[in-house]
Amino acid sequence: MILIAIIVVLLQVLTVTAFLWQRRCRRLAEEEAARRLADLARAGRFALAGELSASIAHEVGQPLGAILSNAAAAGMMFDNCPETGELHLILADIRRDALRANQVVQGLRTLLQKHLPTLAMLDLNATFHESLNLISLEARRRRVIIEPHLTAANARVLGDRVQLQQVLLNLAINAMDAMDDTPAPDRVISVSTRVVRHGYELVVSDRGHGIPADAGERLFDSLYTTKPYGMGLGLSIVRTIVEVHGGRVSAASREGGGSVFTVLLPSVEQQARARPDSEYRPSAIASMSHQVATQGGIP
Ligand code: ADP
Question: How much is the pTM?
Answer without folding.
Answer: 0.76
